[in-house]
Design goal:
The protein is of the alpha/beta class and 233 residues long. The protein has 10 helices and 8 strands.
């Protein structure tokens, strides 16, 4: 007797069949190697849970290429944070200490609902949630630390240079907030002692990426993660 498949899930089952055909029938060697010898990804990619920004789809990654952590607003909590249970820090620790990845990429994106929630909180709107408000508060430091530098020199409608990251200005430039939050999470990664050790040893690199949903363009931080530059011309 065949299992009932809800129409909303039928496309996913078709996708599994396609995956089986590509990676088990046409190219079985790669999956066999991953099963027998384990995974050895060189990249930990920390991305948003947003359904529009799937890292494997965007980057055409194959099984074994990426170790992926996805959460609301692609945030990295600092090392010293209250709470015994934390899937984000657990995944980061496993990727760095056990898998010995060589690169950590934080992938943010335009029109991020998590950043929208953060801006709403800064505007005085109380989040109607049990967990989201506390989670996005992780982004506060990065938002205020970096968005001032990015807004500095941007002309407002009245011709006056914007030099204060007040809430109104933040809401007018959400893409700058999204990028600032990425840089804040990069700073938080540096608070992990075993990440700091590998950074100092030169065996690990950190990267911030921002994906533009409207155009498909990718922006990446420069060598010292101080600015975002377009990657694809």
């Amino acid at each position: 007797m065949q299992a009932f498949i809800h129409p909303a899930l039928a496309k996913l089952f078709d996708g599994i069949k396609s995956f089986q055909h590509r990676f088990y029938e046409l190219n079985p060697g790669n999956m066999k190697d991953l099963v027998e010898h384990g995974q050895h990804p060189r990249i930990l990619l920390i991305a948003c849970s947003d359904s529009r920004v799937d890292p494997a789809l965007i980057m055409d990654a194959a099984p074994g290429d990426l170790y992926v952590l996805r959460n609301f607003a692609n945030l990295v909590p600092p090392y010293y944070l209250e709470g015994k249970y934390d899937s984000a820090r657990s995944a980061i620790e496993y990727a760095v200490r056990d898998l010995a990845v060589e690169h950590i990429v934080i992938l943010g994106h335009a029109h991020c609902n998590g950043i929208h929630t953060l801006l709403g909180t800064l505007s005085g709107q109380k989040a109607r949630s049990d967990f989201i408000g506390d989670w996005v508060s992780i982004a506060m430091d990065g938002c205020y630390r970096y968005v001032v530098d990015q807004l500095d020199g941007v002309e407002a409608d009245n011709g006056v240079l914007v030099r204060e990251a007040d809430v109104e200005n933040l809401c007018m430039h959400p893409h700058l907030v999204e990028r600032a939050v990425i840089r804040g999470s990069l700073d938080n990664l540096c608070s992990y002692p075993w990440i700091r050790e590998r950074l100092d040893a030169g065996s690990l690199s950190l990267h911030g990426w921002w994906f533009d949903l409207e155009t498909g363009d990718l922006w990446a931080t420069n060598e010292d993660n101080s600015a975002f530059l377009p990657v694809i011309e």
